[in-house]
TrEMBL record:
Similarity section: Belongs to the peptidase S10 family.
Entry-linked InterPro entries: AB_hydrolase_fold (IPR029058), Peptidase_S10 (IPR001563), Ser_caboxypep_his_AS (IPR033124), Ser_caboxypep_ser_AS (IPR018202)
Location relative to the cell: Secreted
Keywords: Carboxypeptidase, Glycoprotein, Hydrolase, Protease, Secreted, Signal
A GO term, aspect molecular function: acyltransferase activity, transferring groups other than amino-acyl groups
Record-linked PANTHER family: SERINE CARBOXYPEPTIDASE-LIKE 7 ISOFORM X1 (PTHR11802:SF224), SERINE PROTEASE FAMILY S10 SERINE CARBOXYPEPTIDASE (PTHR11802)
GO cellular component: extracellular region
Name of the protein this chain belongs to: Carboxypeptidase
Enzyme class, broadest EC rank: hydrolase
EC number(s) given by UniProt: 3.4.16.-
Pfam family, one: Peptidase_S10
Amino acid sequence: MTGGPGCSALSSLIYEIGPLAFDVADFDGSLPSILLNLHSWTKVANILFIDWPVGTGFSYANTSKGYSSSDTKSTKDNYTFLRKWLLNHPMFIKNRLYVAGESYGGKLVPMIAMEILLGNEAGLQPQMSLQGYIIGNGITDPNIDFNERIPYAHHMALISDEYFESAKVSCDGKYDNPDPNNLQCLLALQPIQESINHVNEVQLLEPKCKYIAPKPGDFGWDQTFREEDSVDHLFLPTSGHDRLWCRSQNYVTSYVWANDPTVREALHIRKGTIGDWTRCNTSLSYEKNQGSVLHYHKIFSKKGYNVLIFNGDHDMSAPYMGPLKWIRSLNLTVDDDWRPWHVNGQVAGYILKYKKNDFNLTFVTVKGAGHTAPEYNPKECLAMLHRWLSIRPL
Ligand SMILES: COc1cc(/C=C/C(=O)O[C@@H]2O[C@H](CO)[C@@H](O)[C@H](O)[C@H]2O)cc(OC)c1O
């Protein structure tokens, strides 16, 4: 499951872990060519890519009321879909099953896993062979994940020791949505904000680009885009005169492809169901009604499941330090202490394994990767998944 909420699973399929990718290098504005992704996760697993919540990607409801969704509603929808899909594809019922998601999708992962567990316990058919779950740069508890951004910025040398110390003393760990009456904290956060504002928060090392309204005909797609649903379309570097490459430009290919009439016909998208396809639908009526999902992880940690939590370590929006903090709160035992893991003789990141009875949790960093880790380090991420799924040491 992709994040957002409201980002299409097509984004994860094409730009991250699916078997196909667009040829962004040769893209000239017309229908992009399709390439094979050598590092597709489908080499080691069958994957269902789900557009959730309803209204995301090509998914649609028949009534306007049907579009209102939430964490709990979407969890149930995903579970219902999975049950129906498995009943229609019985050859997959016995397969080992993992629920996987990234970013905001990581919040739904333990919720859906719990729904499966409860459904199995209630004897619902089909019984699913749930083995565990996988979360990449996920959000678990915004209080933990987002408050770790400032300590992370300090770790990554974006703010000085003095700025950090002063915020630490004044803000009592509440850097995200600080108490508006705590003037000391607000003052301490000011130079911190100025230091990090112009850094690309999803990949510290890449240029930060800001949206400017595209002109009709830009990229050969002669539509005027609405700003709210076309934030990926055209970006300019926030400073400097030269047009820099920005990763977000790669996403233009998805809009051109998914809105091409021949593509939509080939995909059997029913006419009149949705208008323009957008990579992330930001106008959904979605209630984030589960603040934290840490309690789901707590319940799973008392049962026999296998969990993989991985983080591109150059992402400041959902920094690796968030999971490290909430995982520590589960009171597990360290099974394999922090050590590097390798791909092609190079350090690909770091691993830390925990255990408690039959529960195994592997925490992995992907060195140098941003928010959507497989998009940045595809080879390493496939190696990680392959080794973890085959219960080999990373
Ligand atoms: C709960 O409140 C927040 C949620 C998020 C979620 C981000 C997210 O899913 O990112 C998208 O991830 C997907 C990958 O799953 C990418 O493709 C999209 O580009 C990306 O937008 C972020 C926040 O602050 C930055 C929040 O405050």
